[in-house]
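hey
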């Protein structure tokens, strides 16, 4: 009679995995990794450039390359859109 299986095990939030992935501290993206290797004044310049909408991501990539750090444009874009691991 008591056949009503309530919320047994196995039934989880279908979004659980995605939500967990969003909050995963995990390794930060390449932008942060490279940023940490930069001298403070370049870190500040990079932060300012990332926060300035009129500076294109391509320009940031070119400057980083001139500093000796080659990053994929997609990595920079993701970081800028706060979709990377750094911005949780
Ligand atoms: Zn990032």
């Amino acid at each position: 009679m008591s056949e009503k299986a309530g919320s047994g095990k196995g039934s989880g939030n279908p979004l659980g995995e995605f939500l967990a992935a969003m909050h995963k501290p995990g390794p930060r993206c390449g932008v942060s990794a490279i940023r940490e290797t930069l001298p403070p004044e370049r870190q500040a310049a990079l932060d300012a450039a990332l926060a300035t909408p009129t500076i294109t991501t391509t320009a940031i990539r070119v400057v980083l390359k001139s500093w000796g750090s080659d990053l994929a444009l997609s990595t920079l874009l993701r970081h800028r859109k706060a979709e990377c691991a750094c911005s949780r």
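The two ends are 47 Å apart (CA to CA). Residues 24 and 62 are 30 Å apart (CA to CA).
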